[in-house]
């Protein structure tokens, strides 16, 4: 349904994990007027520049408007039959693990649920992974080790209420701008509030910091071990009923601080501020997660909050903020290869059995599937013979992106569902399926504080584009499972997901939206943003206030974390490249690149280079640098700045192969991963730099 002009629709922003409410008003000519929703609890009317420019990104320029097979336009029936038949044939000949789905934190929860159900319950493989693997898998692994489930304990208001807010590896000002606005406003209103930023790079976020710790890259675990050691030394351990407490403290005491690169007085100031008040929130993001010891870094942070009891109450706690709009919804449906629906444990046969019974699934996966890096390795060696990529662009965004592109090009059968016709990945597809984009689709997303909000359809689909849940369901039906994928509407999928959460809750899962198991289409249409869990005991959305966790013992679990030595630098690649976002672009710019206003902020890919490095390399401001790693090259405009440390330049991730200078940064990033989470270490690629 397209809404007539002047009907204002309440929806949710397409971009980051803050999950801002948006008021979208069609102008009757295919355009949209955009405003922040004053009634949405995440933003109370605020929007950042990306959200405010959403109306400038809804044109059909470059859109994929019809299905195609090997470059020729095809009808939906022909394309869907081909996909279903090819996947069925491949599974019959080579088994369920010969196929894979690679999906996205930008899918709506209903899309994600259907893809996960099809792969894990009906195809019978765990081979569904998501680009969220690249952004928050280490947080998932850390939460599960500490709490027994992937629980984000905090709420946004905690950040405003805290006396001290610590931002670790987070450029909140650019990556979660409205949350940053909320923090900045709170700090202005309460001048005694303190903000600490821990980041090797002096980002814009540091502008409101009382203390910026320009830590050596990768040394966060060492710093939080020092903190835990100090907590023990000052007799500030409040919760002694924790698993692993003594071991974690003993390991922490081995950290002496040299690895952090910080001066003793900086470390002392950090310890004093963190310990001065119970009301401490530690916000962390990709600088923590995107590391080869990301899970240990997460647990080093969680250890300090667990030990001091600073968790489960207002104004305190660890807080993982997610990058993508629905990374959290993906976690809830079990969209990672090593997770199961509704935060259940894929390694637990009882949990798998319960989900199988609920789905009446013929062939449940027997365990986890391949995580993203391993999945594309399996594609490369021909182990995966049919691949469906949905709503993401791995030929740009995966580490060793050139190698991933070559692997996809070699795969026997590649299906890509996307909104855009021409991306680095769509050009490698045998079958292209046009998907609806933001503004055209209906469903739900979950933001970083576990708040579920509706995204609502405001515009007619472009061309023949269809919703992802519909496309995947159609393939499921054509593979022979008509009844299991017989939804007519996303509200029915959401209700099924909610009903499954009741089953999961009975097995000890934290995820509970069971109040919605019987919702009608009318209820779904009118759904207000809400926090889960909704059980009477937890209503209001706070976890762990009672000191009970989801581990078998019911206790929180501390992890002994050892500091990690920096990886050796090879002589031919002496620099370590840090990577990240810019304020006004999103991922590979398929949407944000359409807005001239957003393009003005940063017009081309660049390399932030310390003045000493620039002098040594003979590179002046605005010259071009050729950047090379063992895996790829890029050409970037030089931006000389002391915001970065010597030896640690920075480049943004957004530019693709079609823009010049060529800024495909993930082509340079090695596919080194955290051994527990499988998350790539995207912030320390060994590179060489020279004049172009
Ligand atoms: Fe959208 Fe994030 Fe900006 Fe909010 S902060 S408007 S969710 S991009």
TrEMBL record:
Assigned keywords, A-Z: 4Fe-4S, Iron, Iron-sulfur, Metal-binding, Molybdenum, Nitrate assimilation, Oxidoreductase
Residue ranges constituting the 4Fe-4S Mo/W bis-MGD-type domain according to the UniProt record: 6-62
Cofactor list: Mo-bis(molybdopterin guanine dinucleotide); [4Fe-4S] cluster
Entry similarity comment: Belongs to the prokaryotic molybdopterin-containing oxidoreductase family. NasA/NapA/NarB subfamily.
Protein name, per record: Molybdopterin-dependent oxidoreductase
Species per Swiss-Prot/TrEMBL record: Paracoccus aurantius
Residues of the full protein shown: 1 to 692 of 875
């Amino acid at each position: 349904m397209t809404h007539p002009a002047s009907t204002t629709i309440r929806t949710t922003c397409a971009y980051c994990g803050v999950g801002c409410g948006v008021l979208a008003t069609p102008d009757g000519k295919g355009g949209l007027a955009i405003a922040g929703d004053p009634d949405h609890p995440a933003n109370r009317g605020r929007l950042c520049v990306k959200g405010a420019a959403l109306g400038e990104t809804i044109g059909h320029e470059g859109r994929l408007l019809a299905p195609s097979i090997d470059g020729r336009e095809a009808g939906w029936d022909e394309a869907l039959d081909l996909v279903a038949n090819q996947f069925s044939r491949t599974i019959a000949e080579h088994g369920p693990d010969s196929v894979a789905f690679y999906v996205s934190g930008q899918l709506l929860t209903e899309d994600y649920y259907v893809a996960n159900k099809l792969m894990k319950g009906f195809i019978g493989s765990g081979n569904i992974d998501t680009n969220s693997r690249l952004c928050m898998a280490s947080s998932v692994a850390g939460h599960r080790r500490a709490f027994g489930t992937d629980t984000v304990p905090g709420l946004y208001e905690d950040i405003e209420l805290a006396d001290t807010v610590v931002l670790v590896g987070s450029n909140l000002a650019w990556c979660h701008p409205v949350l940053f606005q909320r923090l900045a406003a709170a700090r202005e209103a309460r001048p005694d509030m303190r903000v600490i930023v821990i980041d090797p790079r002096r980002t814009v976020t540091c502008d409101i910091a009382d203390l910026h710790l320009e830590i050596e890259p990768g040394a966060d675990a060492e710093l939080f071990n020092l903190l835990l050691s100090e907590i023990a030394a000052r007799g500030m351990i409040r919760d002694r009923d924790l698993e692993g407490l003594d071991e974690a403290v003993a390991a922490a005491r081995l950290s002496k601080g040299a690895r952090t690169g910080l001066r003793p007085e900086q470390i002392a100031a950090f310890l004093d501020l963190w310990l001065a008040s119970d009301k401490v929130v530690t916000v962390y993001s990709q600088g923590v997660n995107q590391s080869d010891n990301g899970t240990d870094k997460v647990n080093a942070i969680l250890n300090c909050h667990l030990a001091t009891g600073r968790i489960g109450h207002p104004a305190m706690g660890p807080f993982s903020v997610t990058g993508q709009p629905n990374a959290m919804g993906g976690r809830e449906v079990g969209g990672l290869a090593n997770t199961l629906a509704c935060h259940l444990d894929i390694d637990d046969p009882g949990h798998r059995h319960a989900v199988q019974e609920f789905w009446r699934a013929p062939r449940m996966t027997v365990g986890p599937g391949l995580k993203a890096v391993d999945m594309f390795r399996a594609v490369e060696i021909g182990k995966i013979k049919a691949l469906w990529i949905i709503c993401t662009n791995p030929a740009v965004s995966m580490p060793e992106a050139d190698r991933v592109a070559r692997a996809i090009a070699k795969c026997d059968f590649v299906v890509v569902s996307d909104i855009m016709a021409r991306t680095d990945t769509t050009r490698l597809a045998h079958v292209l399926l046009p998907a609806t984009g933001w503004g055209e689709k209906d469903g739900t997303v979950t933001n970083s504080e576990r708040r579920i909000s509706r995204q609502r359809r405001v515009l007619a689909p472009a061309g023949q584009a269809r919703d992802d849940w519909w496309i995947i369901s159609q393939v499921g039906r054509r593979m022979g499972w008509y009844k299991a994928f017989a939804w007519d509407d996303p509200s029915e999928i959401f209700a099924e997901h909610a009903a499954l959460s009741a089953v999961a809750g009975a097995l000890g899962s934290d995820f509970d939206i069971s109040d919605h198991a019987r919702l009608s289409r009318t209820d779904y249409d009118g759904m207000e943003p809400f926090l889960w869990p909704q059980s009477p005991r937890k209503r209001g959305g706070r976890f762990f206030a009672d000191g009970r966790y989801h581990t078998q013992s019911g206790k929180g679990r501390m992890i002994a974390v050892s500091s990690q030595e920096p990886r050796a630098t090879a002589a031919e690649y002496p620099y370590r490249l840090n990577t990240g976002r810019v304020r006004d672009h999103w991922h590979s710019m398929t949407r944000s690149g359409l807005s001239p206003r957003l393009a003005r902020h940063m017009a081309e890919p660049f390399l932030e280079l310390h003045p000493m490095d620039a002098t040594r390399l003979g590179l002046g401001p605005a010259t071009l640098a050729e950047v090379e790693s063992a895996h790829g090259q890029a050409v970037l405009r030089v931006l000389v700045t002391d915001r970065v440390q010597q030896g640690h330049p920075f480049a943004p991730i957004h530019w693709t192969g079609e823009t010049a200078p060529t800024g495909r940064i993930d082509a340079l990033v090695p596919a080194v991963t955290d051994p527990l989470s499988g998350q790539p270490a995207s912030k320390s690629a060994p590179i060489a730099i020279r004049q172009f």
